């Protein structure tokens, strides 16, 4: 067997950390530090659930493992240098890493991306897959470069169900076992010095953050478009969106059905009905 790699892990939640740790350990490698991406950009404000997520991650951190919460790329770079990693694994981290960071580990940085690259490059691949009504998704492990999700592919697999009532927990039940196996394949290729396979850049698509207007429902849209809009916000755990005008009142729509169901029936722009099965009225602002 090859010499164990010293690995630093940068990720966003307990499921991701646990999966990466298991794949590294079972492949004979040594995770030496965890880094939690608490903001969407270097130097930016903490995410609303950063404290809650950090507490959950602590339950997934093995005893004696360091957990760091860098606030900037500069702080991340200094910390990584101190651990002398052979490899960094990233999963669910929105910052663009400069060459100065990518060059710290001698085997570079690899990323777990929840799409079948080159489709849905960018920070929100799963959201766009749900928004577009995709029935299945995929996971790709690839080498990171200075652009978003353009590096060589080390392992990937599709066919992961994106159910109508998808949540992060239900998605993880299907996706994390796949991610574990893909990481083991990728780690073997990295340890062997394999550069990976170039992407077909002409087939690329981009999945950026949701635009501000996506928080508002337009009944002139098609019923399925609105249904997927509601599904996407529910997956995002949006507390106050999407908002729609319903019988002269503004309501936050939490759940809809394309099939007849208990609730308010609305005819959408394509002439098809949609049933609002869960919603609440937006309080009037005094």
What does this molecule look like?
The N and C termini lie far apart (69 Å). This protein has 2 domains: 6-203, Rossmann fold (3-Layer(aba) Sandwich), CATH 3.40.50; 212-281, Formyl transferase, C-terminal domain (Methionyl-tRNA Fmet Formyltransferase, Chain A, domain 2, Roll). Strand 10 and strand 11 (273-281) form a beta hairpin. Helix 1 (14-26) runs parallel beside helix 6 (168-191) and helix 5 packs antiparallel against helix 7 (223-236). The protein is 29% helix and 24% strand. Strands 3-2-1-4-5-6-7 form a 7-stranded mixed β-sheet, with helices on both faces. A 4-stranded antiparallel β-sheet has the order 8-9-11-10. The mean pLDDT is 94. It is elongated, with a radius of gyration of 21 Å. The chain is α/β, with parallel strands linked by helices and 286 residues long.
Helix/strand/pairing class, anyone? alpha/beta
Count of runs of 4 or more consecutive helical residues:
7
Order of helices and strands: EHEHEHEHEHEEHHEEEE
Characterize the quaternary organization of these chains: single chain
Question: What summary fits the major beta sheet?
Answer: 7 strands, mixed
Beta content comes to 15-25%
Strand order of the largest sheet: 3-2-1-4-5-6-7
Helix content: 25-40%
Poorly predicted regions are none
Mean pLDDT: 94
Main CATH class of the largest domain: Alpha Beta
Number of strands: 11
State the end-to-end distance: 69 Å
CATH hierarchy: architecture of the largest domain: 3-Layer(aba) Sandwich
CATH third-tier fold name of the largest domain: Rossmann fold
